[in-house]
């Protein structure tokens, strides 16, 4: 028995080799070729992107302005910026990990959106008569949403995994996302346009479960690199501002035309503003002298947008949105102050970016807020047609009551959490195999493990630089003096 334990310890032991010269190109080439083959077999343009649109316009008396592209593309642009710029730069706070934060975010999002078009297509857009998936602008938005779940999970394991492991996290993350989204949105018929449940709750708990399984007891060896410097925090704040500005588009991108999208943008906008003030208040109260902590400002200020993902489409009212943002700023900031240290010391869960406080808990609470608002919906507030439109009470769901809808909304939160925790634990176990090229405990949070870095510019110590400058200045004064004498 002792020999078996020793063998297992050696297999999952600390021996690490970050050489991914074979594994990373192999994964990228093989999986990209697989995407080409699968796209060739399944993916086609939908009717609004196909060249036959000209004929369809004439047959149905349409104009180009009625093409969904012109309605959805501005929102798609905003969501796309959030995925590639917002999420990427938000994770550049580590002093020596900015290349990996932005570069690996770029890699897994580029792969993830391709796999998402297929996975979501098979579940939502497959034409069984032709066996083809027809994609348009809304499919691109949903693919970006699908990637967001894996990018959120990346935040929990930032600095501790290899790019090959991240590709695996994305492959399984997108697959699990497509399944749980199908269950929540189609089978349970929940409403979750901004993804509090399907994106943030799932992605948060998925990443936390992976990080828990991949716990490193000796991670303190890299403690010197697990922190920020002045300029890295400024870059991370750029990511925060992009996310903060475009979050109304994120939540409203696929909502109903007209008042549904309009109301979602308003509610998200208001909740985000409210969460900023309470974040600043709690951050200032928590520090000696009232100084602010940039970690809180970079993250907790976004919690209002996360929590409004489900309820923003409903008639939560503007002051209700303010209350949600107010509470989420407090809850998220307290999470960074107390919950994150507790998780690491007591539950052995190392959450690099604090996604528990920004995505997992606000996403879970946002889902339950949506359930409460849905359950209390009434015809006097929404109107009969408004209820039907907002909650899609049509077809086999036409007799569903708001109270019943609220119950299903709450069930959707539980499904998202279950998929995140169970799926993350399984994926974490797969990533424990010592074949993926992840760095050792003393080499985490360092770009040098996977990137060619530019040479550091050599700088003189401040005293020597000052002395050198003064010496140069004296020589210059002497030369000028000699020149003046000679002139005279």
Supply database-style keywords:
globular, disordered C terminus, three-stranded mixed beta sheet, 488 residues, mainly alpha, 3 strands
Q: Can you put this structure into words, describing what you see?
A:
The chain is mostly helical and 488 residues long. 69% of the residues lie in helices and 2% in strands. It has 18 helices and 3 strands. The chain has helices at 2-11, 23-42, 53-60, 68-90, 98-125, 137-156, 163-187, 196-213, 230-252, 259-286, 294-299, 303-311, 318-346, 355-375, 379-382, 384-391, 402-431, 462-487, and strands at 43-45, 126-127, 132-135. Strands 1-3-2 form a 3-stranded mixed beta sheet. Strand 2 and strand 3 form a beta hairpin. Helix 4 runs parallel beside helix 6 (137-156), helix 4 (68-90) packs antiparallel against helix 9 (230-252) and helix 12 packs parallel to helix 14 (355-375). Mean pLDDT is 92; it is low at 1-14 and 474-488.
Task: Chart the SSEs and their pairings.
Elements: H1 2-11, H2 23-42, E1 43-45, H3 53-60, H4 68-90, H5 98-125, E2 126-127, E3 132-135, H6 137-156, H7 163-187, H8 196-213, H9 230-252, H10 259-286, H11 294-299, H12 303-311, H13 318-346, H14 355-375, H15 379-382, H16 384-391, H17 402-431, H18 462-487
Parallel strand pairs: 1-3
Antiparallel strand pairs: 2-3
Helix pairs in contact: 2-5, 4-5, 4-6, 4-9, 5-6, 5-7, 6-7, 6-8, 7-8, 7-17, 8-14, 8-17, 9-10, 9-12, 10-12, 10-13, 12-13, 12-14, 13-14, 14-17
- Could you give a short account of the major beta sheet? 3 strands, mixed
So what's the overall shape?
Answer: globular
Helix content: 55-70%
Helix/strand/pairing class, anyone?
Answer: mainly alpha
Mean of residue pLDDT values: 92
- Strand order in the sheet with the most strands: 1-3-2
- Low-confidence region ranges: 1-14, 474-488
CA-atom Rg in angstroms:
26 Å
Number of helices: 18
* Order of secondary-structure elements: HHEHHHEEHHHHHHHHHHHHH
Quaternary organization: single chain
Distance between the termini: 98 Å
Strand content: under 5%
Topology, number of strands: 3
């Amino acid at each position: 028995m002792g020999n078996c334990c020793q063998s297992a310890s050696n297999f999952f032991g600390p021996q690490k080799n970050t050489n991914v010269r074979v594994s990373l190109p192999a994964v990228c080439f093989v999986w990209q070729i697989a995407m080409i083959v699968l796209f060739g077999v399944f993916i086609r343009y939908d009717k609004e992107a196909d060249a036959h649109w000209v004929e369809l316009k004439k047959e149905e008396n349409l104009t180009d302005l009625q093409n969904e592209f012109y309605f959805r593309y501005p929102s798609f642009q905003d969501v796309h910026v959030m995925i590639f710029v917002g999420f990427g730069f938000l994770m550049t706070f580590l002093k020596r990990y900015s290349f990996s934060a932005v570069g690996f975010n770029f890699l897994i999002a580029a792969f993830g959106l391709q796999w998402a078009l297929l996975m979501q297509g098979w579940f939502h857009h497959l034409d069984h008569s032709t066996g083809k998936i027809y994609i348009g602008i809304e499919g691109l938005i949903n693919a970006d949403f699908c990637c967001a779940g894996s990018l959120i999970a990346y935040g929990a394991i930032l600095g501790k995994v290899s790019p090959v492991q991240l590709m695996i996290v994305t492959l399984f993350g997108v697959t699990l996302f497509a399944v749980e989204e199908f269950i929540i949105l189609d089978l349970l018929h929940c409403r979750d346009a901004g993804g509090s449940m399907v994106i943030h709750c799932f992605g948060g708990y998925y990443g936390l479960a992976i990080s828990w399984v991949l716990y490193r007891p000796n991670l303190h060896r890299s403690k010197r690199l697990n922190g920020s410097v002045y300029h890295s925090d400024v870059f991370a704040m750029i990511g925060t501002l992009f996310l903060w500005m475009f979050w109304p588009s994120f939540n409203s991108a696929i909502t109903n035309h007209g008042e549904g999208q309009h109301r979602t943008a308003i509610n998200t906008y208001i909740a985000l503003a409210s969460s900023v003030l309470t974040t600043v208040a709690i951050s200032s109260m928590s520090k000696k002298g009232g100084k602010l902590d940039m970690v809180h400002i970079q993250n907790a200020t976004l919690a209002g947008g996360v929590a409004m993902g489900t309820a923003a489409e409903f008639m939560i009212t503007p002051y209700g949105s303010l209350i949600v943002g107010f509470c989420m700023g407090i809850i998220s900031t307290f999470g960074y102050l107390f919950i994150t240290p507790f998780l690491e010391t007591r539950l052995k869960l190392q959450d690099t970016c604090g996604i528990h406080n920004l995505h997992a808990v606000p996403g879970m609470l946002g889902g339950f807020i949506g359930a409460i608002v849905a359950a209390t919906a009434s015809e006097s507030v929404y109107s009969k047609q408004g209820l039907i439109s907002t909650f899609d009470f049509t077809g086999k769901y036409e007799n569903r009551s708001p109270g019943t809808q609220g119950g299903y909304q709450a069930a959707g939160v539980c499904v998202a959490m279950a998929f995140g925790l169970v799926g993350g634990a399984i994926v974490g176990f797969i990533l424990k195999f010592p074949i993926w090229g992840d760095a050792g405990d003393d080499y985490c949070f360092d770009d040098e493990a996977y990137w060619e870095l530019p040479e550091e510019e050599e700088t003189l110590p401040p005293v020597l630089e000052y002395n050198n400058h003064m010496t140069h200045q004296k020589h210059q004064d002497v030369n000028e003096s000699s020149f003046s004498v000679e002139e005279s």
